[in-house]
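are you around this afternoon, could really use another pair of eyes. what follows is a protein written twice so to speak, once as letters and once as structure tokens for the fold. i want to understand how the tokens follow from the sequence so walk me through it. anything you notice is useful, everything is just below.
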Amino acid sequence: MGNAIVNKGWIHEECIEKINFADCLPVDICQPECIEYISTNIARIAYDYIVCEGNL
């Protein structure tokens, strides 16, 4: 999936905007407002990892 995103030409910001992990990641009952922050950072890290081919 990662290479497919890069091959589509998605830039860093576009990847963060279009990928959302909110449905995949449970959060504590008192912290639902944190999921956007968590999802954004996971997408950012994943994109950087894919583009750097695992050399962070």
About this structure: The chain has a mean pLDDT of 77.
